[in-house]
Amino acid sequence: MADADTIRRDRLMAWLGAQNISAIAASDRDAEGIGRELTPRLVVCRHDSVGISLCHSLRELPEPPMFVVVSDDPATEERVYYDGRAVVAVVGGVVEIGALARFVDFALGASARLDVGHGSANRPATVDHAGHLSEPAIVASRAAQ
Fold it and tell me: Which of 98, 88, 90, 130 is closest to 113 using CA atoms?
């Protein structure tokens, strides 16, 4: 989880941990390297140059993650789409941390079930009894405000 706002980052990290979701705190510049090393299931990024650059880079992974792009522009069109390589969800407006964390939990569970169903070779398919992942599974860049 990369976010310049350490208070916000720590709150989201604590909430995700309480939901048995493993996340790693990192600086914005380290997020890409960690994302490439861990092959994340989900990337949450801001709709800014750093976040979009992270998305474009990780989109080229052999098994790209799902992306949640958070924009504080009220004119942002919220949508979910497949761009030919990855599933992208665009969320507009200020996002409440709890709602974002619940969405992350839901999306990671869906991704884990898809991996188990398709026999993904590169991503860990270990899911606990509640449908949560036991390995680090999320990289985020400037998650939510």
Answer: 130
Which amino acid is present at 25?
A
Pairing of strands 22-23, 79-82: unpaired
Q: Global pTM?
A: 0.69
Contact between residue 85 and residue 59 where contact means Cβ atoms under 8 Å apart: yes
Bridge partners (DSSP) of residue 118 are none
Q: Residue 102 and residue 128: Cα distance in Å, rounded?
A: 17
pLDDT digits (tens, 9 = 90+) for 95-129: 677 777 777 778 777 777 766 655 554 544 433 43
> For 24-43, what is each residue's pLDDT tens digit?
777 777 888 888 888 888 88
Domains contained in the chain, CATH given: 6-141 (3.40.50.2300)
